[in-house]
Amino acid sequence: MRHSATCFITALCMGMVFLPLSVMPSHAAGVAGGSTGAAHAADMAMRMQPAEQQAVLQARPAPTPGTGGAGLLAWPGVPRLGLPVLRMPDFAVAPDDGNARPLLPWLALAATWDPDLARRAGNARARAEWQQARAVLRVGGVDLLPSGRLQAGEDQVLAGSMAGMIGAGLLAGHVLPVFGSVVREEHARADGAVPDRTTPVPAARLASQGLLGVAMALETARGGAILCGGLAPCQTVTGLGGMVHDVWRFPGMIMALPGGAGAIRDKDIAPTLAAVAAGVDMEQVAPGEDGHDVLGAALRQAVREGSVKPAQVQAMVMHILASFYMSGSLDHPPAFASAHEGAQSASADTLVADVEAQGAVLLQNENKVVPFDPAWGPVLMLVRPALRPAAEKLADALRHAGLNVTLSVTTAGAGAPGTLPPATAQAARTLVLSDSNDDNQMISTLAEMGGHVAVVLVADDPDRQMPWLDTVDSVVQAWAWRNEYAQPLAALLSGQQDFSGHLPVTLTGGFYPPGMADADYRAFARAHVVPLFPFGYGLSTHGHVTLGDLRVVRDGNHVSANFSITNPDDTPVRAVPQLYVEMPDDLPGAARRLAGWRSVMVAPGHTVRLSVPFSLRLVGQWNPAGGNWNVAAGDYTLSLGLSSVMMVRHATLHLPALHVPGVLDSTPTPAVTAE
């Protein structure tokens, strides 16, 4: 068999990517489903009749009363062979945030930099999907095409690892993660620039961009599937199937969301041939698409005419089954009878609260206004009418934490001098909840009155303008508001818990250097421009840590960076030391990039020794001819710090010329020792 799963499974048995020992998934012995699952996929595909093989290439509408039928699709299975029907959402339909399975706060989760929490999030979503009798879930934050501004942040290493840990949690719950994003999840740039996604681009050109994040997600999860068509038609990425199956040796499937693989017009089967050539294995079909879907009647016609060989169809089926066997959903399908609508569970509420508690980022804290001290007197909370419900919940939580809080709601259009509520003139401390640039004049006017002002940003906007930054005391990035945030945010603002979040995106203030195609930290570094707040940045109110000497050791195609972290203060501190690697100046792409990180709680007065491994593919150039990464000889700089611009330790690693295999890989598990 040309597309062997053996190499993939063997490589993934080596260990996990960038993850502490405590968060090793329970299925760490290999890809979920293992070599037995891969063998089952091959055997089952051969046992299917041609009509059965063609039927399982699609998931079609099949709403059933009591299971939330809107936007629900069904993969038909093969009852004759014991393969069950599996249900999944239509990935082209935006989920309803008001139902019992609200979307996780992905960007806030990425801001925790906590793989264990991401895996818990995956477990929680798996339970929620099973309640709805669904066995497949899309995980955003990574995609084939570069975006830089997706759910899980702007860096492929961070996004791929965190998305992969969500996938690991899903797989442990027998739910298949499908990695890929859709346009509605992108954060639009402040200048209105949009990526060009009309020109076909070879997969080889994307190897170190979007495809790197997808590969890391598959490695970290140890299985899953890949989504195409969410940001651009599947055929936009040429040679995708060859990269995924021949180079990566990934045995699973590439799935297209409705319309992502094209559409049939006037019985022309060219879109079908293009979809098969692009590597699409399964197609989602939305209601009303009958006759326009590319892997239905048009594929059957192509097989009859010989344009698509039966062996190609069998290989597509094999990829589909391999993904489902990875999740165990074919052996442990959710029972349709258990599907029901219901209230969100208390455990889900707790999980979302934990995400905010660890993901809220303290950006600025002049005069140490945060945390609010009850001895300093009352706090006035100021909001626009639209945020009143959120403010009331937060005010109640702050009062419960011991603060004297008064809520004041502005009138529409307030901001100019004389339009703010009279209470603001006497307030010594004011807390502003803000979700858009519409509040900027109000915040500026308030700050000019002379009191202490703290601003809490309750929206996911990397380009949020802050013209008032130099006139306010404290700024907190609390991400898009959810009611579960009230209690943890109150604990942070009152000092009952320390801030520990770090930015997964660059906060640009809405300004980019001329000609900047992306607005991520590497683009700012290449332009020699310091952004408003850099990627990886975050402050603490309780203490600080110091980083010890950085030492690096190479073992074949992997490098391990070893260092110590010390907490000299008298309170515990959760730190996120980040390792960056930079290629020699005379090589392309020399800008510093994240190689790995650790999320660790350091006890007062203690020192912890950490190890962060990474693959040398991160400093390689993709070689399409050889299907590997070429690493040039030279001196590479490794830097350790607490953001992408705050480096405190450096080491030089001299490398000979190397070739790193393109097959999916994993680095050894990092070690933690306390002194």
From TrEMBL:
<dbReference type="GO" id="GO:0005975">
    <property type="term" value="P:carbohydrate metabolic process"/>
</dbReference>
<dbReference type="InterPro" id="IPR036881">
    <property type="entry name" value="Glyco_hydro_3_C_sf"/>
</dbReference>
<protein>
    <submittedName>
        <fullName>Thermostable beta-glucosidase B</fullName>
        <ecNumber>3.2.1.21</ecNumber>
    </submittedName>
</protein>
<dbReference type="InterPro" id="IPR050288">
    <property type="entry name" value="Cellulose_deg_GH3"/>
</dbReference>
<keyword id="KW-0326">Glycosidase</keyword>
<keyword id="KW-0732">Signal</keyword>
<dbReference type="GO" id="GO:0008422">
    <property type="term" value="F:beta-glucosidase activity"/>
</dbReference>
<dbReference type="InterPro" id="IPR026891">
    <property type="entry name" value="Fn3-like"/>
</dbReference>
<feature type="domain" description="Fibronectin type III-like">
    <location>
        <begin position="575"/>
        <end position="644"/>
    </location>
</feature>
<dbReference type="InterPro" id="IPR013783">
    <property type="entry name" value="Ig-like_fold"/>
</dbReference>
<dbReference type="InterPro" id="IPR017853">
    <property type="entry name" value="GH"/>
</dbReference>
<comment type="similarity">
    <text>Belongs to the glycosyl hydrolase 3 family.</text>
</comment>
<keyword id="KW-0378">Hydrolase</keyword>
<dbReference type="InterPro" id="IPR002772">
    <property type="entry name" value="Glyco_hydro_3_C"/>
</dbReference>
<feature type="signal peptide">
    <location>
        <begin position="1"/>
        <end position="28"/>
    </location>
</feature>
<dbReference type="InterPro" id="IPR036962">
    <property type="entry name" value="Glyco_hydro_3_N_sf"/>
</dbReference>
<dbReference type="Pfam" id="PF01915">
    <property type="entry name" value="Glyco_hydro_3_C"/>
</dbReference>
<dbReference type="Pfam" id="PF14310">
    <property type="entry name" value="Fn3-like"/>
</dbReference>
